[in-house]
Amino acid sequence: MGKRMKNSGLMFLAVALLSGGVSAQVDSPESVIRAFVLAMYSNDTAAYERLTVPVRGRERLEQGGAVNVEAKQELQQHPEAVQLRMMRPYQINGRAVRPDASGDYPVGTTVRFEASYRNPVVVSLVRRPEGWRVDVRWWLAMLDLADGPPPARDSADYAARAFIESILDLDRDAAAHFIAPGGSLDIVFAGAPREPEPSDQLPSLTLEMPLVELGPGEFCEMPSGRVVEGVQRDDMKVLVGLFGPLEMPFVVQRFGTEWKVQPEPYFSLILR
After folding, report:
1. Which of 80, 99, 124, 250 has the fewest CB atoms lying closer than 10 Å?
2. Is 61 helix (H, G, I), strand (E, B) or coil?
3. Does the domain formed by 149-270 have CATH 1.25.10?
4. pTM, whole model, 2 decimals?
5. Rounded-to-10 torsion of CA 80, 119, 107, 93
6. Residue ranges per structural domain of the chain
7. What's the Cα-to-Cα distance from 109 to each of 97, 124, 203, 215, rounded to whole Å?
8. Under 8 Å between Cβ of 263 and 187
9. Do the domains 10-142 and 149-270 sit in the same CATH topology, yes or no?
10. CA 13, CA 7: separation in Å to the nearest integer?
11. Count of helices and strands (H, E) across the chain
12. For the domain bounded by 10-142, which CATH number is listed?
C-alpha cells in the first residue's frame, strides 16, 4: 500500500475533451456517451460542461487538450465506433428501476457503461432534470491517484484498500485488523477461493481503484444486497470504488484513530 499508485485509464482521460458538433438532442445514456467520446477528441470545453455533472474540480479534465482530427472525423461519420456495454443496470436509491411508458427514467437514476473506442473506460451517468449527464468524479479520483501521494494510513481510503488487499491474500489476520468491531470474518471470506490469485492483476486493481465518497441522497447496494445511503459524518463514510469495471462499495467507520470496514461478502463481487 506504500508505493505510488498507477492508473492506465488516465491515458484515455488525458486525450482532448469534447466537441462543438454535439447535438443538443442527447436524451439517452448511449447518445450522451457517444457525444461525450466524440467531444473528448475535439477539445470543446462548452460541450464538456454541457454533458457532465457540475462537480468541484471537473475543469481539471479540460486542461491540456488538443483536437485529434482523425478520431473526430471517424466518430462524426461512424458514432457506432464507440462500442457500449452496460456494466451496472439502472438504479435509483440503490435499487433496480425500469423506464416509464415513454421510456424515461426518474431523475436521480444512475447507470454505468463501458465505452470502448481505442481505449476502454467506465462511464458513470446520472439522470438530472436537464437530462442524462456524465459523472466524472471517479475520473477525478483517478487523477488524484496518479498525481497525489498515496492515501494516508489513518484514512478511510487506506482502510478500504488495505482490507481488500488482505482478503485477496486470504490473510484472515490482516483482514481482522481492518474489520469493524464485532464483524464476522466468516461473512467476509464467504465463497473465497482455496488459494490466492497467482497473478498480480487483482492486487493491481486494488491499487488503481478510484474511490468516491457518497453524500446524503446518494445510495449504493452492498454485496449482501442491503442498500446504504451516503452520509456527511466525521466518523463514517460510504465509499464506492471501481474495481476494474466492477462497482465496489464500502461502509467505513472510525473507531478512535482507526478506520474499519463493515463486513460484507466481497468475494461475491471479486469473483463475479
Report:
1. 80
2. helix
3. no
4. 0.87
5. 130
6. 10-142, 149-270
7. 8, 11, 31, 15
8. yes
9. yes
10. 11
11. 10, 11
12. 3.10.450
